[in-house]
Every structure is written in structure tokens, then in C-alpha cells.
Amino acid sequence: MIRVFFLYLLPLLLPTLLYLGWFLIAKRRDNKGLPPLTEGPWVWLFGSGLVFMLAILAYVAVTTGAEPGTDYHTPVYKDGKIVPGGFK
Questions:
Q1: Residues 26, 29: Cα–Cα separation, whole Å
Q2: What is the pTM (predicted TM-score) of this model?
Q3: How much is the average pLDDT of 41-70?
Q4: 50-61 burial string, b = 16+ CB within 10 Å, else e?
Q5: From the CA atom positions of the chain, what is the Rg in Å?
Q6: 2-30: pLDDT as tens digits
Q7: Angstrom distance (rounded) from CA 82 to CA 88
């Protein structure tokens, strides 16, 4: 679940969370010059979050994993302990 949060949810929501944080701080300082929250740049925030998420997924896809043709051994239960799997 933590992987889903860091790879999908956080990058997708980070621009929106930053905007909302800025909006709340700006609203406390000065109420007069801000448009209503409903008129925010929601399409741009969603689009930038989507681009950010895709960039992180591409980075993870390129930098992790094993070489093609490598054998994967599944985890096994041996002598009362679980021996982790991996690529060999």
C-alpha cells in the first residue's frame, strides 16, 4: 500500500496539495485579491500531477528490475524460516 501511495497517489495529488497550501496561506494574509477556490486552475493541477506521476513511473521502470533472461526464484519456507526470493 505504501508503494501505491508513493508511486501513484502522492505524485498525482502533490500539485493540488501545494496549491491548496499556498491558497490557505495567502487567504490568511490577504482576503481581497484572491479568486474563489472554485475558480482555481484545476485542469492544470490535474495535468501537472499526471505528468509528474508518469515521469516517476517511467523512472522506476527504467532504473529497477533485472536483466532479461535472469531467473527468478520464489520465496520458500525452509527449516521454519521464509527464505526470500530474488533474481539469480
A1: 5
A2: 0.69
A3: 92
A4: eebbeebeeeee
A5: 22
A6: 988 988 999 999 999 999 999 999 988 88
A7: 17
